[in-house]
Specification:
This protein is α/β, with parallel strands linked by helices and about 210 residues long. It has eight helices and eleven strands. It has an eight-stranded mixed beta sheet with strand order 3-2-1-4-9-6-10-8, sandwiched between helices. Strands 5-11-7 form a three-stranded mixed beta sheet. Helix 1 packs parallel to helix 2. The radius of gyration is 16 Å and the shape is globular.
């Protein structure tokens, strides 16, 4: 599920990276674009991508602008699969991203798996930012080992795989949270219900940082 709003210029590289995911024959997947009231050429961009015979089924869902929490909930309702992977419209997925999330979910027998997010910056530029600045820009990295998330260190919706049945158990994203934080709230509720959330170090995505 990719929620988007007025990112027509950045969306193609995000979707193309999702179409290149390796499955090793272990699972199939679809890509669902939820357009949260875009006023740019998002619909036309997605139509062109769909007509280009993408490697994975690609669907488009438009809704009036209502915020990202509402868009994510629409994605949950519209998604056909038993699992939902959330991905942002300003990211690029490495080819093994989805397979690694699936692998860890099966290995750990868990219903939720998150992964690292790197900033797509040159190393010289990256070194100019301290850890707090990189975190504000979206960097999330727990290192190179599998580990279980704790109550103070939770995944984000830019890189996470969630079993769909959890949304019935704990509810969806809080649409009253219009200024951000609905993802943190969602994972906190999941944690309070005792759901084990695991970190997959090789399920990496790159967050594009424009000039």
């Amino acid at each position: 599920v990719v929620c988007t709003c007025n990112r027509a210029a950045m969306l193609p590289q995000a979707i193309e990276s999702l179409c290149r995911q390796r499955t090793d024959g272990l699972f199939s997947y679809e890509i669902l674009i939820v357009d949260d009231g875009s006023t740019d050429e998002t619909e036309q961009v997605v139509a062109r991508l769909m007509s280009g015979n993408p490697a994975a089924p690609l669907r488009y869902c438009y809704k009036p602008a209502g915020g990202v929490a509402e868009a994510r909930n629409v994605g949950v309702r519209e998604a056909a699969g038993e699992w939902i992977a959330f991905f942002d419209d300003d990211q690029i997925a490495e080819p093994q991203w989805l397979a690694e999330l699936v692998r860890i979910s099966r290995e750990k027998r868990t219903d939720c798996v998150g992964g690292p997010v790197s900033l797509l910056l040159s190393e010289s530029v990256r070194r100019r930012f301290g850890p707090r600045s990189r975190q504000i820009l979206g960097e999330r990295d727990r290192g190179g080992s599998q580990s279980r998330y704790g109550s103070q260190d939770l995944p984000g919706t830019g890189n996470v795989l969630i079993a769909k049945h959890l949304f019935k158990a704990i509810g969806g994203f809080d649409t009253e949270m219009r200024e951000g934080g609905c993802d943190t709230d969602f994972f906190m509720r999941m944690n309070r219900q005792g759901v084990e959330i695991w970190y997959a170090p090789k399920a990496r995505v790159q967050h594009v940082i424009p000039p």
